[in-house]
Fold 4-diphosphocytidyl-2-C-methyl-D-erythritol kinase.
Amino acid sequence: VPSNIPTDVPSGVPPLTVSVDVPAKTNLTLHVGAPHAEWGGRHELDTIYCGVGVYDTVTVTRKEPGSGFSLDLAGEHLGDLASTGSDMRRNHAVLALFALAEACGREPDVSLGIEKRIPVAAGLGGGSADAAGALLALNELWSLHWPIGRLREIAATLGADMPFCLTGGYARGTGFGEQIDDIPSDSPAARQLRERGFAGLTMIGAYADALSTPAVYAAFDRLGAGDGDDNHLQHAAIALHPRSGDAIREAVAAGARQAFVSGSGPSVVAFVADERAAADVRRAWTASRAVDRIIMAQAPAVPRIRR
Ligand code: ATP
């Protein structure tokens, strides 16, 4: 069906294509415990996740039976992602496609399109967001009607942040981050987060260079958490990427309500009260070149499914 022809597909008819806009994540607090051998060396985490409204769009479209999958990546900042060759099979969205196809007994005859806007390897969970987007979109495309809990079980086999990315908003993550307790927006805990400034207008300070998550955990194992940070990885991330520390100091001095390294970095997230404070932070970051790029967003953000 060409997209310029208005259609009125009756519900119950399986769609030919489904798109999901899926937000980035950040960690409002991130407490890192001991590594566990049975989790492949992953550390125990206790974190408050927050969806941040810079969105990748994941589109899944039916293909001829037996034709296999294809992947099409678009975006200005694709980092180390490749859309052809052997790397394609390592794309988190492709892994999610294979995992769900296997779990529900379907062939992965699907074309996957990803329009990337979330910076890659930036501590913003872009790969996890794309995997979650693929699961949400395929759940519709294949009319599976699986509840989120069942999708989360598959997501947890693929990555720590993926179960959260299926729902966004605010949530607590434990285990290695994959055990999710939702924090509904009308709960006292959500109100407390909003009162602390973790809501509304958000500025992402992004970088052309990336930080590898394992490298940041290795630095954390050497250096520890430092003191005073709600994000235990911030000290290690700043040691490896000092400009993130500069950006945090400048954002706070310019009036941001909260500013911190996002996850394992190097991106910095600053929550500001209004447009005026945003302009002040923008001026500081632009003058000092403490960040390479500024992305404006709203938080907390949730995925949007479009049939
Ligand atoms: P992590 O989830 O490990 O903390 P991150 O949030 O810092 O990572 P991502 O954008 O998820 O960063 O990228 C981490 C790595 O995952 C990249 O180096 C990239 O090669 C790989 N990757 C695989 N698929 C994707 C995808 N769809 N989008 C982004 N990165 C992907």
